[in-house]
Amino acid sequence: MRFFRAQYSRVHQILFWAGKFMLKKLAGLTIACMLLVCGNLFAGAAPAEENLWMTNFEAAKTKAKAEHKLMLVDFTGSDWCGWCIKLHQEVFDLPEFKNEAPKKFVLVELDFPQQKQLSEELTAQNRKLQEKFKVQGFPSIFLTDANGKAITKMGYMAGGPVKYLEAMNGNVTKYESILAIRKKADAAKGLERAKLLDEMLTLGDKFSADSSDDVKLGAEILTLDPDNKTGLKSKYTYKNLIAQSETLTEEKKFDEAKAACEKAAAVPGIAAELKQDAYFAAGKCCFDKQNFGETVAYLIKARDAAPESKMAAQLGAMISRFQGMADAQANVEKLKVELASKKGADRAKTLDQLVDAKTKFNQGMRPGMPDEEITAWTSEISLLDADNKLGLKTKYAFKAAMLEARSNQRKKNINGAKVAVEKALALPGLTPELKAEGEMLKAMLEPKPKSDAPAPAK
Questions:
Q1: Which of 184, 223, 414, 424 has minimal CB crowding within 10 Å?
Q2: Mean pLDDT of all residues belonging to the chain
Q3: Torsion sign, CA atoms 111, 115, 118, 122
Q4: Does 9 map to a domain?
Q5: Over 111-162, what HEC string results?
Q6: Are β-strands 140-144 and 70-76 bridged in parallel, bridged antiparallel, or unpaired?
Q7: Domain boundary among 149, 175, 201
Q8: Is the pLDDT reported for residue 396 higher than 90?
Q9: What's the whole-model pTM score?
Q10: How far apart, in whole angstroms, are the C-alpha atoms of residue 62 and residue 159?
Q11: For the chain, what is the domain count?
Q12: Is residue 193 part of a domain?
């Protein structure tokens, strides 16, 4: 589904809804260990670019630990991804980067080529790491510690190697600050620890690529300050509920996720924009269920929660976009209820309305894709109006012939398309609208006359 896109990043990863990659697990651990001792895990997987970029992730971790460095991990499509190639040409392949980056980082390239062949072992390693790091697009650049734990995520950045190195070093400085606060927090107790944990989590917000500990630390803050003496109770109650909704959404438990979002929106004392985030996340749950009526209702709640926010205008545009789909979906459901009590000619007429309503809905969802319900309804209409008393048999015979004509047209089978159009136009009892539609396609299939105009002078 491409309609409901991430509009902002105030709530961690709420709007990433492409599916996770289902990948093979890395095999051959015994052999891998033997090869690691020899200094090269995979056949053909020697470090790239004259030992500057390593391809063996475990060997890179060993090197990073020995040299007390962080790692820069590049998930790339070296022979097909335009932005990956651009990043290498503008940054990674230039002397300024090659000379400076290895002083602080072990460079790791995890390639996903389409033309170049990698060994099976290297391909399996890269896919396993793609799943671990939840990589959904390329290039994806991660700073990690020497254990391979993600610190923060980067990507393409214009401005050349100097600007990119500045961003990398800035991220390192921020990471070191987080570690320093973490060290203080580990030595503190009670409310002082709660405050330090909050400081650490706030600094890491929108920075950390691995927030797996955030929920646990947020829960600890609530335990350390049950009486809300630090004023952090609402903040972390909200964050924990949003985190729950994200987990439930990943598990496709959309109703439970929506309920968690509702609770988050109801937390007392939260900012209007946080309430907006929660309602927006609830709308996302409804979208995942393809319930567009509820989707629109929550988008309206989100807009009204913070009408002066930057997001409000975007929400208004989304509401307009989804309202038509919500209306079409509601009409389909209404007609389905009516259909249950209809028989004979009345049932055929209602089915005809259903086909039109579902077709309109599909135009917003998946235009041109087959629909089993429409196919079944069309077949039933032909049976119910076998004598064409309602004109529906002709209507759907015409639709079928025109569908065949357009299919042949797409396949460049113009003669086949012409035959199908003639079959459609030969049907008895065509309405003026249907006849005009057929004549228009027939005209489109005719070859265009060659121009007799002289060629322009050179």
A1: 223
A2: 86
A3: positive
A4: no
A5: ECCCCCCCCHHHHHHHHHHHHHCCCCCCCEEEEECCCCCEEEEECCCCCHHH
A6: antiparallel
A7: 175
A8: no
A9: 0.66
A10: 32
A11: 2
A12: no
